[in-house]
C-alpha cells in the first residue's frame, strides 16, 4: 500500500523538513561533481560535470604549443632619445611687414597671384585710378566711405579727362565749352560729353560737377569701365529697395594708382599733367603718400607741380562743393 503524501506543511515538497533539500538531490550532485562543484557560466548556471573538466585538462596538456615568433610587440626595442635641432637666434629672420607682402603681390613678384597680361594699370584713365585709390589698402574695404564726396571728386576728374582729350575748354569764368562735333571712343566719357553738348550755352563747372555727382552717377560710370576691364562686378542685393553695389574681383587694381604715379613721375622728365590732376583728386579724397605707400620723393614732386591754368576754376568749384558737403545744414 502506497503511503499518503504529507500536505500539512503548506504545500512544501517532501523532505523540505530535513534541511531544505529533497531526498533525491544527492544523486544529482554526485552526477555533476558533488555539492560544491564549479558552475560554468556558459551552461546556463548548471554545474560542469567532472568528466568535462577532466577532458578539458587532458586536451590542454596533450596539444602542442605553437611557438610565437618574436615581433615588435614582444621584443623590447631600444628607446631612441629625441633630438631637437635648435636654430641659432642669428638665423631667425624678422617678420616681414604687411606692406612688403602686398607690394610683392601687386608688382607680380609673388607667384601665388596670377598676373594677367596688360593689367599693369599704366594705361587706365585717371578717373579710374582716382576711384581705385580708395582701395589702396584692401580690395574688400574702401578707405573713404563718403559716397557723395567720391562722386563729386570723380565727376570733376571725368571733366578733366575731357580737357586732356581736347574736347572741352574752360574759360576764365569757369564755364565749360564743349566741342559740338567731338566724339569719344570711351562710352563713359562720351556719355558725359553728350550731356555737355546737349546744352545750347556754356554753363559753369560747379553745376556740372553737382549734376554728375547726383545719385552717384559719375561713380557708376567709372565702375562700368572697371567692369568692362574684367576687374570688377556688380552685386545686386536681395532687398528690392537697396541699390546694387560694385566690388573688385581682382587684387591687382589695388596697386594701380601707386604704380601709375611711380611710372609717370621720374627724375629724367617733367611731371605730366595727367599725374598732377590725379594727385589733386587723391588729395581731395584725403589720400596722401603714406596711405598710398608712395615714395615721399614722388609725392614732393607732385606737390610742386602746378595744374594747368585752365583747370584752376574747375578744382576751385570742386573745393567749394566739398566744403558745403562737410557743413551739415
Helix content: 40-55%
Please provide the count of β strands: 5
Amino-to-carboxy terminus distance: 131 Å
Order of helices and strands: HHHHHEEHEHHEEHHHHH
Query: Could you say what the CATH architecture of the domain at 123-326 is?
Result: Orthogonal Bundle
- Low-pLDDT runs: 7-33, 87-118
Can you tell me the CATH topology of the domain at 123-326? yeast vps74-n-term truncation variant fold
As a percent range, the share of strand residues is 5-15%
Strand order of the largest sheet: 1-2-3
Count the DSSP helices: 13
Structural class: mainly alpha
Could you characterize what this model shows?
- With 329 residues, this protein is mainly alpha-helical.
- It has a domain at 123-326: yeast vps74-n-term truncation variant fold.
- The chain is built from 13 helices and 5 strands.
- It has helices at 25-31, 50-62, 98-106, 126-132, 147-164, 187-198, 205-213, 217-228, 256-264, 273-284, 289-292, 296-304, 312-326, and strands at residues 168-170, 175-178, 203-204, 232-235, 245-248.
- The strands form 2 sheets. Strands 1-2-3 form a 3-stranded antiparallel β-sheet.
- It is globular.
- The chain starts with 24 loop residues before the first helix and ends with a helix.
- 25% of the residues are buried.
- The model is unreliable at 7-33 and 87-118 (pLDDT under 50).
- Residues 66-75 have a biased composition (Pro residues).
- It is found in: Golgi apparatus membrane.
